[in-house]
Design a protein that fits this description.
Blueprint lengths: L2 H10 L3 H19 L2 H12 L5 E3 L1 E2 L2 E17 L2 E5 L5 E6 L6 E2 L4 E5 L2 H33 L8 H33 L2 E3 L4 E6 L6 E2 L4 E7 L3 E8 H4 L7 E6 L4 E9 L9 E7 L15 E17 L4 E3 L2 E7 L5 E12 L2 E6 L7 E2 L12 E3 L5 H11 L1
Parallel strand pairs: 1-22
Antiparallel strand pairs: 2-21, 3-12, 3-16, 4-11, 5-7, 5-10, 6-9, 7-8, 9-11, 12-15, 13-14, 13-16, 14-15, 16-20, 17-18, 18-19, 19-20
Helix pairs in contact: 4-5
Amino acid sequence: MTNSTHYTLKNLKLKPAAALVIGALVLATGGLMAVSPDSVAADDKKDAAPKPALTVTTTRPSPASLAIKLGANGNVAAWQEAVIGSESGGLRLTDVKVNVGDVVKKGQVLAVFSADSVNADVAQARAGLLEAEANAAEAVANAARARTLENSGALSGQQISQYKTAEQTARARIASAKAALSSQQLRLKYTQVVAPDDGVISARTATVGSVVGVGTELFRMIRQGRLEWRAEVTAAELARIKPGTSAVVKAANGSELTGKVRMIAPTIDPQTRSALVYVDLPQSAGANAPFKAGMFASGQFELGTSDAMTVPQQSVVVRDGFSYVFRLNQDGRVSQLKVQAGRRLGERIEVTKGLTADSLVVVSGAGFLNEGDLVRNVAAPAAAPAKVSASAAK
């Protein structure tokens, strides 16, 4: 060995501490190599196995026949309101027989005026008629005698003509006296204010002791007790409504009535771009009537039925103002689908957009899921959705 080689080996000699470190590393490496590869793979596989986040039930969308309804708002008003006024002027009101809310019949006396002065005028007119009839009788007799002497020359033609004219004048005075008597009798009739039709008194201004003029309003009456709902409908929706269409009207106090469309207004308000639809309501007169004139009411027009695809209400999740359902995929994970909800049928909701009929939709537990969650599926009873639809259809 040369001197250079001896120098190299001498330099490679290690200190005892370094030798111990190297030995420990060699043992560790050998130990790792001695571990079985199959054991490592089994442990990794065990740690990576996914677990379901939730146990859910699922169902598929069901077909249903849903009612087509159109909502509207409006006011309840009288079908026709009659104004009952005074037809006699300058007479004192002595009695008022009805009040607001009373149900009256046609011809029923509502108020009475003093008839003393009118009775006197009637008596005077009757006396005038008797006088006219007496004068007419004398004129007729004179005219008859003049006709018998017409060819004898005892009377001139002028005299005979005067007798005939007096006869005609007397007859005219009888007719005038009869007309005067009828006028006074009519005034006597007007001392009693009567109802022009069946109905309900809606307003009263008549006061006992007052002296009113001709035409002064005394009462207002809802004719025949009929009310109507004047619904405001936009021009775009107006074509869907026809006379005879049923409408369910609900008042602010919770009362409901079913009426029918009587007519549609021929014009549209240029300010609101809406038209009035007049719906006849069933007659309900009296103080306990559920609907009152002047009430605000909302309602729905029933426009028939249409086919629809529905899901249970529990399966629709509302987040951030939008509706979602969760579809269960073949790999056991769910997909969040944005849908458009429509009408309701009991506890089911119509889905108009975003879902196909063959999709498997999560029902219970949908509100706790997120996109891509792994779930365990437990099938829901198949008869449950059909039972809900049948009961809601009733």
